[in-house]
Amino acid sequence: MTPTARKPRPDAVLLTAVDSAHSVLTSSVEPADVGSHIASVAEGDRLVTHTFECLRPGYRGWHWSVVVTRAARQRTVTVDEVVLLPGPDAIVAPTWVPYRDRVQAADLGPGDLLLSDEDDARLVPTWLAGDERTEELIDERSIRQVADDLGLGRVHMLSLEGRDAAVQRWYDGDHGPETALARSAPAHCHSCGFLVRLAGPLSTVFGVCANAMAPDDGQVVSFDHGCGAHSEVALTKAQLPPMLPPPVFDTVAFDDIELF
Asked: Which of 64, 197, 223, 260 has a beta carbon 3.0–4.6 Å from 190's, enabling a disulfide?
């Protein structure tokens, strides 16, 4: 059986020490910032917290917390700490977010530098993962030696985790299949003549739009994306302009002919 936590025994001496807690509180902070007594809570054996209303401007919903205690078999009350704590209705600052997690792609401007972490899971050494041109070669050690000697190639490349994250981000973004533009398109990009296919492992999912009149021109688009500028787009019968009536010849009256 799991033992249950024992509730602390209320200490009558400490529960009634409201005046002592209030006196220490008003000697530590401005008396005008202290309001009425709110509650007394037993935190443990011979340990009680007294809370007082906070009247300090700008701290609506906060309260003063005064923790008191006493030694065993002693009736002298001792104050442990005085703190200002937020209540459920208090206005508090939002949770701090690290700088790297706050930076968005659109925040990077001309001249700004964004360093990659040494342990960035999106990047791995090129000799470890290989790329499209070296994966078919057999001797990895010789490739690494030649690249080091000549100073060629990239130091890092996308890891599997980085590639999967990019695929998911692109597919869920504005150039994927779930946008209003794609849902109303007459056909998908996969069958469009303006699609330039990518090389490598992403070539089965994405391409680049090369239609200057399309809203996605120059952007990576998924095969099941689409827009109204598809190369094979055709108007339906309902979308065709109305046919003009045949011309009518006037055989009764004379036509006026302007002579030059």
From this structure: 223
